Amino acid sequence: MASWRPAILSAWLVPEWAGTPTNVAPEEHDDLGWFDLDELPPPAHEGVRAALVEAMRGR
User: Fold this and answer.
1) What burial class does residue 49 get, using C-beta atoms within 10 Å of its C-beta: 0-12 exposed, 13-18 middle, 19+ buried?
2) 6 CB burial (10 A radius; 0-12, 13-18, 19+)
3) To pair with 45 at 20 to 30 A between CA atoms, which of 6, 10, 22, 51?
4) Rg (alpha carbons) of the chain, rounded to whole number
5) Which residues, 6+ apart, have CB-to-CB distance to 27 below 8 Å?
6) What is the DSSP letter of 50?
7) Do residues 32 and 21 make contact, with C-beta atoms less than 8 angstroms apart?
8) Between 8 and 53, where is the model more confident?
9) How far is CA 21 from CA 7, 15, 46, 50, 52, in A?
10) Where are the domains of the chain?
11) What pTM value is reported for the model?
12) Residue 21 near residue 30 (C-beta atoms within 8 A)
């Protein structure tokens, strides 16, 4: 039987970046990705998505 554990989402708004991002803590993070506003994957909760969209729009 698989045990259930909550998902933890970390998000940073990065206006500019140079280089290739690397997950240097794979024991803590499953994945690392860059997304445009129109390409955001679905988060665990719609409220989180709404907050990210508002932050990305500068509101």
Assistant:
1) middle
2) exposed
3) 22
4) 14
5) none
6) H
7) yes
8) 53
9) 22, 14, 26, 25, 20
10) 30-59
11) 0.46
12) no
